[in-house]
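Sorry to interrupt, but I need a hand with the structure work. Can you supply me with one protein entry, sequence and fold together? No commentary is needed, just the two lines. Leave the record below and I will have a look.
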Amino acid sequence: MARTDSTVDRPLSDQLEAWFRGSGPRTVGGLIDMSGEKSFAVVFIVLMAAPALPLPTGGVTHVLEVVTMLVALQLIAGRKSIWLPESWKKLEVGGKSGQRFATKLVQQLRRLERVSRPRLRGLFRHRLSTTVFGILVLALSLTAFVAPPFSGLDTLPALGVVLLALGVLLEDALIALIGAAIGAIGAILVVFLGSLVVDWIGQLV
């Protein structure tokens, strides 16, 4: 996989904490500028943390999932930097949860960083791995997007994206694998329960 610059000076949790505490609105465009060369993985982690964390976001999660899917398509296409419409760059990260979202995200990232270590680093340094990463993020983000509203079923696919992207960023195959597994379980639940709802509606009609 094309590297997302795992040799950072500070842990991602520290970088995000400083960014969230900075002045001005915390927007998607600002997040991309802050994350630099590792922007794909960081954007996936932060945007999909909104539906993954049990916090109110004022309906912004679907918008962030759409942004994530567009970014994933760019990763699959081999782009080295993220392009977004200017209006999308102005979207605020975390929605109405604001500081609660930031605090919860940083806390969870710190826990994972403490137990993480490089595992099978060679897997992350091939173009094919980058494509697979993008495809998985796209599929799980789409699953979260189509999950029935207010069902909470988008949580597992979104969490899968967060862990998968963190595993890629830290070059930790175990965390990436756990993320992919959690996302797959979430996708199965969405498809299974979604089919039950369709059958139930069909019976009513």
Remarks:
- The first helix runs from residue 12 to 21.
- The chain has nine helices and no strands.
- The radius of gyration is 17 Å.
- The chain has one domain: 12-204.
